[in-house]
Give the backbone structure.
Amino acid sequence: MIYKFCGRLTTGATLELAGGGRREVLLYPGRTCDLPEEHPWVQRMVKRGYLAPMPGHPAQTETAMPPAEKENA
């Protein structure tokens, strides 16, 4: 799902994925990012008001690729 970051400072996080992988994300104030809505960190950020769901809107920033995809790109 696409989320708009409503924080005031650039924020980074490493998300542990269900399949055992990791995903690095950087969130910039006012920008959007495609994030897994079922992830506990994403859900906490939504509840705290730092992420706002933006259904139907394309992401403005490039999403981070998992390491395996970077090697194949």
About this structure: The longest helix spans residues 40-47. The helical segments are 40-47, 67-72. The mean pLDDT is 84. Residues 9 and 73 are 30 Å apart (CA to CA).
